[in-house]
Every structure is written in structure tokens, then in C-alpha cells.
């Protein structure tokens, strides 16, 4: 028996970051239902080339890797009927995962308050490129823009003298950007301290935590 058997996860996410979390939960035994665009599906399905590698035919590892072990549902969340189906699925689920930005979550009725209105005890987890707080909270991004570039990894592999590099204290560094102030994960307890769980995560913070730049204590 796997540790998450009997747990249902509802995933409304695209590309690789949050769907990868759903794939891990599926491997641990959870029943993961992935909601995709009713016509085009997850845009990752159209990714056929990475660097020099081009994928011909199916299966396409670019979509399969982060979505293994899941069930998939095409749903139009922009119409009332689609939202009703989504909320019914949320009512029957234990965990909700999303990578949608704040504006899209409000538009489709999948923000924290919307999902908690139909299932007060659900675990709500959202992932984004730059975190949920600050002036860049509404901006999207991918690993190349948030994980590699903004967090400094790209700078460490860029040759000396390349435009955009700067020298500081004898080391090669990129021109720094302000560090975000949001936590890697947080929870919003009810007044008695035992409320449902709300998780927030970003690709930028994942890199920083992995390098020991910020701590991950509950705040």
C-alpha cells in the first residue's frame, strides 16, 4: 500500500513546475485529476523541441514526465457549467494544486477563497515564478527566467567580460536584483491555530533555499 492511497488531488496547472508535484503525489498513491483546457490542453503538449533534441510522434516526454500517473479532464472553466464541474471536483478532493496567477485564479473562480467556499478543509497549494507577494507577484515566468537567471545560476556560467556581467569584490556576479521578501511556504491558520493548510511556493525561492540563501522556517 502506498502512503497517499485514498487521497484525491485536483490539479489546475500547466507546464512543469506544479504538475511535477502532482506527478510525485500520484507516484505516492494519490488519485490526481489534472484539469486542462478543453481544446488545446496543457500548452506543454505542444513542446516538441528542447535545445537540439526534437520529439517526433508520441509519447512526448515533455508532457509525460510531469504528468505521469494522472487522470486528465478537458474543461472550459470560463463558462458557468465548467466552473460548476470544477467546484464539484474540488468538493470531493483533499488537495488542490494550481500554477495560475492571481488574475487568472479570480477569473476562473479557483482562488483560495473560491475553493475553500466549497471545501473548507481542502489543502490549497499554489506555485509561481516569483512568489505571491511584492510588486512582481502578478508576473509569470519559467525556470529560465526565474530559476536560472533571476536566482543567479545563469550568471555563474556566463563567461567573464560578457555584456551584463559585473565584477564585485573579486568575484564574478550578475547585477543583483532585490531579494524577495515572501516565504517559501506559509500557512494561514484559523483563530484556534488549527485551520486548513495553504501552501505557497516559487521557482525562484526553490533555487535560493537549495543554495542555503534563505531559511524555510514557518513564519
TrEMBL record:
Residues 167-191 are annotated as: Disordered. It comes from the Bacteria. GO terms for molecular function: catalytic activity. It holds the Pfam family CoA_transf_3. This is CoA transferase. The lineage of its organism: Bacteria, Bacillati, Actinomycetota, Actinomycetes, Mycobacteriales.
Amino acid at each position: 500500500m502506498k502512503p497517499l492511497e485514498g487521497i484525491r488531488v485536483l490539479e489546475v496547472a500547466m507546464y512543469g513546475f506544479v504538475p511535477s508535484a502532482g506527478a510525485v503525489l500520484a507516484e505516492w498513491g494519490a488519485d490526481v485529476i489534472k484539469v486542462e483546457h478543453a481544446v488545446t490542453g496543457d500548452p506543454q503538449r505542444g513542446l516538441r523541441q528542447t535545445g537540439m533534441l526534437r520529439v517526433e510522434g508520441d509519447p512526448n516526454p515533455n508532457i509525460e514526465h510531469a504528468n505521469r500517473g494522472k487522470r486528465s479532464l478537458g474543461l472550459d472553466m470560463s463558462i458557468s457549467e465548467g466552473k460548476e464541474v470544477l467546484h464539484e471536483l474540488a468538493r470531493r478532493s483533499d488537495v488542490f494544486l494550481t500554477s495560475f496567477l492571481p488574475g487568472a485564479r479570480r477569473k476562473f473562480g479557483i482562488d483560495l477563497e473560491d475553493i475553500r467556499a466549497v471545501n473548507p478543509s481542502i489543502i490549497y497549494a499554489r506555485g509561481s515564478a516569483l512568489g505571491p507577494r511584492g510588486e512582481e507577484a502578478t508576473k509569470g515566468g519559467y525556470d529560465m527566467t526565474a530559476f536560472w537567471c533571476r536566482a543567479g545560476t545563469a550568471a555563474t556560467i556566463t563567461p567573464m567580460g560578457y555584456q551584463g556581467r559585473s565584477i564585485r569584490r573579486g568575484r564574478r556576479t550578475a547585477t543583483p536584483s532585490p531579494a524577495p521578501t515572501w516565504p517559501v511556504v506559509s500557512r494561514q491558520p484559523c483563530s484556534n491555530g488549527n485551520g486548513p493548510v495553504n501552501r505557497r511556493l516559487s521557482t525562484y525561492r526553490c533555487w535560493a533555499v537549495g543554495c542555503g540563501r534563505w531559511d524555510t522556517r514557518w513564519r
